[in-house]
Amino acid sequence: MSAGPRGEGVDPGPGLEPLDLEAIRAQFPILQRSIEGEPLIYLDTAASAQKPDAVIEAIRTYYRREHANVHRGVHHLSALATSRYEEARRIAQRFLNAPQAHEIVFVRGTSEAINLVASSWGQRLEPGDEIVLSTLEHHSNIVPWQLLAQRSGAVIRVIPVHDDGSIDLEAYGSLLSPRAKMVALVHVSNALGTVLPIRRMAAMAREVGARVLVDGAQATVHGPVDVAELGCDFYAFSGHKVYGPTGIGILWGRGELLEQMPPYQGGGEMIAHVSFGGSTYAAPPARFEAGTPHIAGAVGLGVALDWLADLGRDRVAASEARVLAHGTRLLSQISGLRLVGTAADKAGVLSFVVDGVHPQDLATLLDEQGIAVRTGHHCAEPAMERFGLTGTVRASLGVYTTEAELDVLAEGIERAVRILR
User: What is the reported pLDDT for 17?
Assistant: First the structure.
């Protein structure tokens, strides 16, 4: 079982001090509530993580005492808001080990980040150029490239996966050719939990001159991510997946690539000079941040990233790996239950079906027991089709998930199945 999403699977090593999960859980107000008279067991972090007090209070403080528009005023509040906003950018830089802060672009989330790259960098594609995706991609890393292919005449190639949900590297190698211009890959599959060997795949892409974008929405929450080590060209993630606010996210791009890319949207702040005869554009990242940004979201995201880093991201990865291994053992023992996605390198997801039981019916009965899980195709229909399914039940883990909660999940599944059968 993987200990984190660096790309090849890492051993956190012996001697890591265990996380105090009860102390961590006490920082999440929502985990103290009940559902249907039962203590909440939140197993839907892959959809959106819950928020610790530190993040909630940072946003509250910003709106109560610090709010003003950024980059546009000399008064005290504007300077303070600008300082908070730009500090969040530097925090994101450290979080990803990015070379420069100006390589960090604030976006609404992973979806917008990928659309930005496809719309801006993608303008250079010509008919016959190739975009390589994997079967495991979230719709957010499929549809923007399909739209680009329709506009440019580029062709999409798809990497197959093995029966355990791991990527077929031999097939990937055969798909790479000098026509491949972009390889866009999920780092951790939201539907199966598979961790892709990004470092190796990026190196293979570089051999044919292709650029690499990584959808890190499900990776940053589970362990360390180092863009320099991975060797990719773009990396994107969403704040709400990593214990931060909704509506904010990060696109990291190599500085020289961002410099070459035209604006994604027009408006205030992204310009150097405007006249009716024409306009010139600001340097990155301002070029890609048109209009008033989600300042409170950036502040909250910065606090969330520091909060997670302070826990020790290797410790987080090791803790979640233990909980995931425990849940895998428990669910594997349930009669008629089949885990979907059993790759050796996994993070944070238990996706499964039960013979003769519709996923939605099972999830409904689990909800009546206070257990929150997700059902459906998880915005990854091609992955579901690969396994002959329309959907699964997905239990996804966070830093606050305990082995005891997965004990309750297993008992709840067995109870629900007895009712439904």
Answer: 86
